[in-house]
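Continued from yesterday's entry.
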Amino acid sequence: MRPVAVIRFSRSEGPGRFGDWLAAQGTPTRLVALDQGEPVPDDPGAFAGIGMMGGPMGANDPTPWRDPLAELLRRAVDARVPVIGHCLGGQVLSRALGGEVSIAPTTEIGWIDVEATDATAAREWFGGRGRMNVFQWHYDAFTIPSGARRVLTSAYNPNQAFVLDERHIGFQCHVEMTRELVTAWCGMAPGELPESSTPARQSRADIERDLDARIASLNAIADGIYARWSRRLTS
């Protein structure tokens, strides 16, 4: 089987649960470390699927990889090679497909509820869950690209995930989080966290409260998403 390309934008935002799940299934992966200057692959057919992680930069920033990656993603969609994007990865996918990325209506940081947009989305992608508590850390947001459908929404930013052709999915939220990622991010960016929580922006104490239970719940959600996405991987 061809490997799944795992595209990393920052060393601080690695594959997390996505990589763990693929490894547990015996699915080969190839890390594409854009943060280390590795070039964007030019042939989506070399991969069974393409997964993109998060990152601190913006999808509109003039990075060396922005336009080559957009071209790779468009070619992947045309070739029906499944793509999944987490946060920045979801924004990059939206932009590549003609959507727009701009400053979010509300900054979201911490554990925040999202809702499936309908029963079909809940059943197909989220194990029948209508409401889920997921991790957020973003300042920008995407629009739903033409031909895609919104499958997750929240009270603060309506576009939390979209699906295209029942094989490509882009997330605004972070379903890939592990305990190690959560604690590392909190340690790296304490200035972004308020001393007292608001509904959309939580303190470090509230983010880390009941962390093991929160992570266990999120991992179960993510595992179902990855299982559904992987059904369309090319051989």
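--- second protein ---
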Amino acid sequence: MDFSIYQYILAFLGSFLAGMINTLAGNGSVITLTILTDLLRLDAGVANATNRVGVLFQSLGSATGFVKNNMFQTEKNWVIIISCIFGAVAGVWTVVNTSNEDFLFVFKYMMLVMLVLVLLNPEKWIKEHPSLIKVNLWVQIPLFFFIGFYGGFIQMGVGIFMLVVFVLFSGYTIMMANALKTVIVIIMTTVVLFVFQSNNLIHWEIGLLMAIGQTASGYITARYLSKMKNINVWAYRLLILVIIMAIMSQFQVFSIFNMNQN
């Protein structure tokens, strides 16, 4: 499949924006998947797989920035990480054997639930210092297995689910949660890419182009923006905006506006 210079430029710019959104809030895949499916017209399965290339490299860039700011605390979270990995394996095995359309139907209603959860307790999202809560292992294991499953299946929105759990139920600040989220996404996506590649679903040319934009943006955001004054407040606002935009996209609000204009 041949692409125009215009398509390449838009793909790069969109991936740069997605990298920033992923690092601060999550759900940047709303942008990249839209580019891959609507702008580049890739098959849904290929778009889903190709999107993971940028996710992996951008997460590595973000992780480098977070490490320089000493924001990682992974030593106490191996149960969470391992649960997510097993879930991701189950999720990617499922997605290569089924279509995305049915799950996308569920996804848009899950975004509505996420918006309510994020708006319910804003004080927890914008706090500057953690108030860590010990969560029972029998709650953590199935919860993060499900998150891993979702991430392996479709990726889009998995960062928001992680942030909701880390911030509201574990007491992390939003930036601490973003750092841990980045570690989990790197491990999950590495596993998932092997499965997608074995099924020849990755368009590497586009995937690597978008990975460059996402990686540069992820590093810059994590290295410099994560230490800005009131960054938790701005990340919280961005998170709300991204969820609202995702809901509008999934419910085709923009299409309704275009129809009314015509």
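The chain has one domain: 5-261. Residues 20 and 246 are 16 Å apart (CA to CA). Will compare against the first tomorrow.
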